[in-house]
Structures are given as structure tokens and as C-alpha cells.
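Hey, sorry to bother you again with one of my protein questions. There's a protein on my desk that I can't quite get my head around. No rush at all, and the record is pasted right below.
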Amino acid sequence: MKTAIKASALDKVLGHLENLDTLNLTILVQRLARERKLFETVFNSIHEGIVVLNSTHVVSYANVAALRLIGFPAEEIGRGVLGRWVPGLVGLHVGSSFSRELAIAYPEPRLLRLYGVPFSIKDEGDLQQLLILQDITADKASEQTLLEEEKIASIFQLAAGVAHEIGNPLNTLSIHLQLLKRCSDASDQHTLAICLQEVDRLSDIIKHFLEAIRPQPLVWKAVDLIALIEEVLKFHAPEIHNLGIAVSLELPADFPSIQGDPHQLKQVFYNGIKNAIDALRQGGTLRVVASVRENEALIQLIDSGQGIAEADLPQIFEPYFTTRPSGHGLGMLIIHRIMRAHGGRVSLDTHAGLGTALTLHFAVAQEQRQING
């Protein structure tokens, strides 16, 4: 079936240029300029990048979004080959239709979705390629975050179930030990008392473990982070003293408060400081530094331990990953979960043999978004 496109008034005029006088030619040029300006405005208002390549891969057109996404200089339009700026498109076959994802590093790391469509202009003959570039970096990051959260939630649920199952026999054991203690000889009282203390200690560990891994609704209030840090350091003081660790505090008196759940934030500091202590089993220095940068309140826990091997860094927030024989591999995961719930983030700077700096980024009170509130 043949189809026909109705010619516009402009097409009809262009077909009879030889019959136009100077005045009408001027009017025509002005009209063409207005239409070109309209199309440029429309294409430059689109968030997706639009690129047109000729048969030799030279960029014959690119809108503003495309120039920004791939760092292509505007002055290179009409002469620059696209593959020079986007190596992943070297060897692209002009004339093919495709859809694929492409990771680029310049002008900044991005993940793009590319759509390619060939076309040709009537009476010109040369085949050209239209590329549409869509930045999906944020979408992919959100998707990855969602997958990670689902994985973490399932792991926490499994861990909570295991801890609960351990708790039940511990309760039974405690009851029977108490019964034995009542009817035992005096010589056995001391042994049974020690057994009861250990069972109670294990029960207490499981109770706090369950509190830590089960997502709890945040109870929002103004939180003095400095006071929380000092409280956690006081709790760890005996272990810090026994290991000969020197603690250096750089905590300004005017450090701002934040909005958060003090109970959960205490878990963040407990796990972070505990990790630093475990990295200093042979002694060393633990620095706790508080500072403010733009709209963030920063707490840094810096140890002078052996640091983390580069090969282990990608797994540091993975559940059950630990470099210590006695570690359970959930501390950093718990820190990450609680910080995210507070609209904050965690960064890690470490080098093998040089120590580790764990930085907790909090939004200051007036800027903080109560994500779970």
C-alpha cells in the first residue's frame, strides 16, 4: 500500500524558488530561521541526548543534552568522529537498528541506554544514524539499592529466626539450672551460679542482636551525637584500657545536633568503635573526629591498625563478610542500614598497613529528611 504525505505550504514554496522576488525570498528566509529556532529549542529542551551521525561516524548534529552526557564539544559538530569521545561506539555500524546499555567514564561515570535508528533524507541518498541517549545511572542505582535492601531484609529475617531458635533452649536451660540450684549441695552452688550467669549473658547477647538486626520504627528526636559517642566509649573503656589503645577526641563544643533515633544511632557508634578496637588488638591510636561540612555533620572513626586489603573492600558491606575469626560479619551491614534509614551515608577510606577511617555522614537537623518518619 502506498502512502502519501500532504505537502505543506512551505514545501510548495520551496518547489518554486525561481519564481520568488527579493521580498518573498526575504520572508521565506525569515520563516525558515524561525522554524529552525523552534526545532532547536524543542530538541534542546529534551532531557535525552540526540545525536546524528553520517556514514563516516562524524557527528552532524547533537542537542545540548547529548553534548553534556558524552562531553562532546559543540565546536566539533560537523567534523568530530563520535568514537573519539565515546570509545564504546567505535565500529558502530551506521544503518542498523539497536538498543543497548553503555557504560562511559567521560566526562563522568554514567550508564546510558542507547537507541539507534538509521534514516536517510529524500533526494540526498546518504544513510545516516540517529542515536538517542538516555541517562539511566540513577535508575540502575535505585534498582541495585532495592535488590540489596531485599537481600539484607531476607538475611536479617533468617538471622533473627536462628537467634530466636537459640533463645528458646537457652530459656529452658536457665529454668532447669535454677531448679538444680535450689536442690543441689552447697559444693555445686558456685558452678551452677556460673552456668546461670553464662546463660543469662548469652540470652542478653541474643536479645541485643535481635534488636540490632530487626528494622525498628525510628523514634525521631534531637540527638546529641557527641554525648552518644562519649557514652559508647565509656562502655568500651575497659577493653580499650586493656589493649593499650590511645584515644584522641576532636569533638567541638558547638557541634550541631541532628534529628534521629538515639537508640539506633548508639548501635552505629557501638559497631563502628568496636570494629576500630578489633583492628587495634596490638595497641595503637583511635581518633574520633567531629566536623561540619556544608549541610553535613561528619563523625570519623580513625584507627591506626592494619587497614583493609583492597580485594576485600567491595565486600565490606556484604552480610556475614568479616576478616576476623571471631567476627559475625553484620556490624558494617547494621551501620549501613541505620545510616540509610536516617538519610545519611557511610564512606570508608582504608589502605592496607595504614589504618582505616570510617566516616558517618549525617544531615544537620534543619536539612535532614525523615525518610522513615
User: Anything to note?
Assistant: The first strand starts at residue 49 and ends at 53. Residues 138-214 form a domain with the Helix Hairpins fold (CATH 1.10.287). The chain has eight helices and twelve strands.
